[in-house]
Amino acid sequence: MLLEGLASSPSAAEVLLAAGRLDDGTPIELLPCHDRGGVGPMAGVVSPSMWTWVLRDDARTSWCTLNEGLGKVLRYGAYGPEVIERLVWMRDVLGPAFAAALRAHGPVDVKALIGQMVQMGDEGHNRNRGGTLMLLRDLLPSMVEHSGLPSSELARVARFVGGNDHFFLNLVMAAGKLQSLAGADVPGSTVVTVMARNGTDFGIQVSGTGSTWFTGPAGTVEGLYLGAYGPEDANPDIGDSAITETVGLGGFAMATAPAIVRFVGGTVRDAMLATRRMYEITLAENPSYALPVLDFRGAATGIDVTRVVRTGILPQINTGIAGRVAGTGQVGAGLVTPPLECFLAALRALAQAAP
């Protein structure tokens, strides 16, 4: 609301949002990103002036916004002047720079970059260092030649992207959404195609039941906190970024990224065990995401609701922790699992729909 000039202050925005319409009567509608074929990290806010990455295969399209970095950012619920200033710069400078680079360079094979970064110590959710730098390597020369930016702004773009190890996360999320769309709407299929959280509820969608949400309470993330923050400062689990785990990355691939435990907690042994357990609740392995430490075994892919219910093993998600108080931003990172009732409800629905 503030970024788009629809409200003059946070309090004015709250009044308009509560009323559900602008002063001129225009209705305000809030929609889940997944309902529009995209994904939004954490708070998942996407407004009209924001640039998005668009990913395509031969039949489908998905999208995600550009990553703002860590700390006090919009996706963690922060909305102070510095947040709006950064978003304006991303709208006016960063987005056009990448658009110019892509027009000159041509499409980037994001799936291939993900496969490479998994072999470089990234798991695709909370660690995307290799992916970020490979993207910058591929597009920076074209950006320098075709963006028309002065050297000072080009340097700022390079510093912003190169200094933000999470920049590539949003591309991984869009790739995950595209991958999950390919497995959606198969009659009778028990494969989970979406895992998402809104800070109150955790929801899943299953291939055989289409766009129906099966929900339970969002859990509290257990992990490491920044500075003086602690569990009392944490908001319940939130965001669409669990699409990475839905397709075998993130918490499912922690064995390939042992350094991640220093960010989300636990030990290297815990990361190995978590990855191995995920093979017990999935139907396939993705050879495109090969894990070197497991002799290049493909990442566990295709969460099966029947296997989750039968084994009691819940999908492992590693994620950031948003502050409970609006405007705080990120307070930590850690591990969380979905509530079992999501999978029980999905299984009941599949059984009722069976011929």
Structure description:
The protein is α+β, with helices and mostly antiparallel strands. The chain folds into three domains: about 1-30, no CATH class; about 35-170, Enterococcus faecalis V583 domain (Enterococcus faecalis V583 fold, Alpha-Beta Complex), CATH 3.90.1710; about 185-355, v583 fold. Helix content is about 35%, strand content about 20%. It is built from eleven helices and twelve strands. It has helices at about 10-20, 80-105, 110-120, 130-145, 150-160, 170-180, 245, 260-265, 270-280, 305-310, 340-355, and strands spanning about 40, 50-55, 60-65, 190-200, 200-205, 215, 220-225, 240, 280-290, 295-305, 315-320, 330-335. The strands form four sheets. It has a four-stranded antiparallel β-sheet with strand order 6-5-4-8. It has a three-stranded mixed β-sheet with strand order 1-3-2, covered by helices on one side. Strand 5 (about 200-205) and strand 6 form a beta hairpin. Helix 10 crosses helix 11. The chain is globular. The model has no long low-confidence stretch (mean pLDDT about 95).
Labels describing this entry:
single chain, 355 residues, alpha+beta, Enterococcus faecalis V583 fold, v583 fold, 3 domains, four-stranded antiparallel β-sheet, three-stranded mixed β-sheet, globular
